[in-house]
Amino acid sequence: MVELSLAELAREIDATLAGDGEIRVSRLATLQQAGPGALSFLANPRYRKYLETTRASAVIVGRDQRVASDVALLRCDHPYAAWARAARLLVPAETVEPGVHPTAVVDPAAQIDPTARVEALAVIGADARVGAGARIGPACIIGEGVHIGADSHLLARVTVLARARIGARVILHPGVVIGSDGFGLAAVDGVWEKVPQVGSVRIGDDVEIGANTTVDRGSPGDTVIGEGVKIDNQVQVAHNVEIGAHTAIAACVGISGSTRIGRYCTLAGGVGIVGHLEIADRVQVTGMSMVTHSIRQPGTYSAGTPLMGNRQWRRNAVRIKQLDRLARRVKDLEDER
Amino acid sequence: MVELSLAELAREIDATLAGDGEIRVSRLATLQQAGPGALSFLANPRYRKYLETTRASAVIVGRDQRVASDVALLRCDHPYAAWARAARLLVPAETVEPGVHPTAVVDPAAQIDPTARVEALAVIGADARVGAGARIGPACIIGEGVHIGADSHLLARVTVLARARIGARVILHPGVVIGSDGFGLAAVDGVWEKVPQVGSVRIGDDVEIGANTTVDRGSPGDTVIGEGVKIDNQVQVAHNVEIGAHTAIAACVGISGSTRIGRYCTLAGGVGIVGHLEIADRVQVTGMSMVTHSIRQPGTYSAGTPLMGNRQWRRNAVRIKQLDRLARRVKDLEDER
Amino acid sequence: MVELSLAELAREIDATLAGDGEIRVSRLATLQQAGPGALSFLANPRYRKYLETTRASAVIVGRDQRVASDVALLRCDHPYAAWARAARLLVPAETVEPGVHPTAVVDPAAQIDPTARVEALAVIGADARVGAGARIGPACIIGEGVHIGADSHLLARVTVLARARIGARVILHPGVVIGSDGFGLAAVDGVWEKVPQVGSVRIGDDVEIGANTTVDRGSPGDTVIGEGVKIDNQVQVAHNVEIGAHTAIAACVGISGSTRIGRYCTLAGGVGIVGHLEIADRVQVTGMSMVTHSIRQPGTYSAGTPLMGNRQWRRNAVRIKQLDRLARRVKDLEDER
């Protein structure tokens, strides 16, 4: 880690310093766990209680945050964004030593940029290309004809098939599968016949995809993930889905085939979206909701039932099965007035 | 890809040709993206609007589809099934060159058919068998005593343990895990003790399993997946589950231990099924439904609440907690009439 | 497998034997599939019907179980726990031959205990430590600075990064990812900026984690999984989550960032928990429930709607959207009385 004075840090992250500019920080920590030399932050009001007692050397807070203690403060408009920038300053990106590990299995017809790094036991197929500064982690599999853009980082055990095109500065976490076959089946006399899957996957620049997430190839046509899209762990993106730029998708979301999601959307954890829908730009869907129809207007959408004690839930859940009848009974009472 | 005339194609897929039989196609494309030389199809009415303007050389459509443009048509009873067959003709299966890659780690006591292919960095344990024409992709792990049937294809990074038996023509996508331990725990004085898992997994012929899906071994007894079953990505099949032939399971489904699912069922994305249930043949469960009791009759079953704007949802969701009381209040009103 | 007489077995598992103590068993089987020489058990009353016709040589049952047949019985207080113990006696743990497979890629600065085993194509980074008797299965990736405790077993293709600390006797199943980056994003002018992830993961002794489960590193601070925690397949544990000792988490659960779960909890399959919550000790959440607020009291909690025939569901589901209005209409009727 790097060591920085609060004066330097305030300048870099556009903060107003309340405290001694000579104090130096060289670590990142939560308010609860911080000690001398650590920088911390307060963005979520739930953790405000820890602000008074923190042993951090400095804390990034909002412009108007009240603080009773005399800890040094870096006041910012957007404390979490400022924290992100401060973290990048204190934890500089690793420099990547280029080269191909001797245990990697690289097809002679693959093109590895001389500034790229290919780690142990990676497999790189014919006609694949790995761009400048890219890093292919251990045991990654880069199929025939796949392109990996400049400065992208596949951490470990990532599989990319189907001649997929991966943009620049893309981060793919362990266990990610890109370009597996879609669930293309045709029923013939009650038996499922496989529809050959022939399309690919295109992933824009600055995309990040979390551990064990799967992105199927399109067929025909491609599955497309726009630039700046961020996808968490264990998300399923089916064939021919299109995701607009700068959309964020939390863990355990499933998106069915051919659905198109707009730009600047957010899907919370566990959301499911059925196939062939269109979701407008700037739509937010709250956790574990199922989306069964297209959404034309920006805004926040929800489904689901609230958590209850199990006994209360049992009493109420059975009533859901009688709800239509209950509504008719109310109608009858109204008509009898 | 192969090039075929529409006359040949019509014959092969049992279509009535409306157009010039001499036209040749050699590519597959969606209606929107097709150009000259491409074959396309219309199976889902949502995409009808693209039919008039497509630049495809020919389109597979239903027998009675109305079309205003003069694009060549291949009229079929089941356009999606015909598309599947046409795709298999235009994209013939890769011929697999047999042999074991020098970086594969194969136990001397494994039996690899001389016509099988074992790719880079695969690991094959003692007493494992790989059948004729089978293909074990890069970095797959075939545990001790596992059998892989003829012409099966494990794409890459598939793990098969527990002496599992995999049938013929089975396709396993990257990240699939077969034969991991089930969640067998016994509570002893509040602490969980592991129950040793001793059974196996049996997978029938012509099964396909999607990326990052997991199938636990049974204990005692086996987990059984019938012939022709198709499973999408990120599905969880717990220990001792039995899935009947020709059932299709979409992504993100979870099936708890010892549940038996019938033949010709379809489970839509995100469905959850609790343990020890029996689901009859020809049952369909719609997306994200939770199945908490056995289903004895064929038919379609559903659970869940509809998507709403968040404000509307908040108002309604709180009422679900009061639903039993609401029903009692209606009863009181009725009694007072 | 080992062969044991019923007399020996009864002594070892604290059972009362009803039958011939000389009978010997050497296999484990379900009641339905058992034959001579097999030991079986009855713990779930659903399977009682098989008890009269089983061909098992002996069956572990509850103290008061009525049985009409003359099969030998081992009567116990907790038949499933007794079954677990009997299984451990009949299926003794494999002895692990120590040594590093010649195809493993081990950094010279890693410390592998001489009694540990590192299997084919594993990758072990600098400053990693593998404890006594630990077993690193084929194609596992142990990142720089990671510690694996004594007698832990990583089955195959497990990835551990971020200098994680794994306790003793921990079992990690294939496809598990420990120490991937959390979903830490800050919105800056509508674009997502990555927050560098700097913390780690600490996993206590006797933890078991199922296939393809993911556990993100904290930042700052650690993600913590307490001793004796059991996690099933395809569970997502986000950054900075803390899970108390002896909690059990079934498959397909998702836990969002910074949530703290108590000790001795059980989360059933498909449960989702939003971020920054606190769940008390001894809380049980039933399947597919979404937890949106902290839970302060032990007990069982539920959400969700019951499964219905699709037609019935359609009629009722639409009424959920009118529920607030329905409640107001009932209020009006009451006011008019």
Description:
The structure is a homotrimer of 337-residue chains. Chain A has 337 residues and is of the alpha/beta class. Chain A has 3 domains: 4-90, 3-Layer(aba) Sandwich (Udp-n-acetylmuramoylalanyl-d-glutamate--2,6- Diaminopimelate Ligase, Chain: A, domain 1), CATH 3.40.1390.10; 99-301, UDP N-Acetylglucosamine Acyltransferase, domain 1 (3 Solenoid), CATH 2.160.10; 312-337. Helices cover 13% and strands 30% of the residues of chain A. Chain A has 4 helices and 40 strands. In chain A, the strands form 6 sheets. An 11-stranded parallel sheet of chain A has the order 8-11-14-17-20-25-28-31-34-37-39, with no helix packed on it. Chain A has a 10-stranded parallel sheet with strand order 9-12-15-18-21-26-29-32-35-38, with no helix packed on it. In chain A, strands 10-13-16-19-24-27-30-33-36 form a 9-stranded parallel sheet, with no helix packed on it. The first copy, chain A, is flat. Chains in contact: A-B, A-C, B-C.
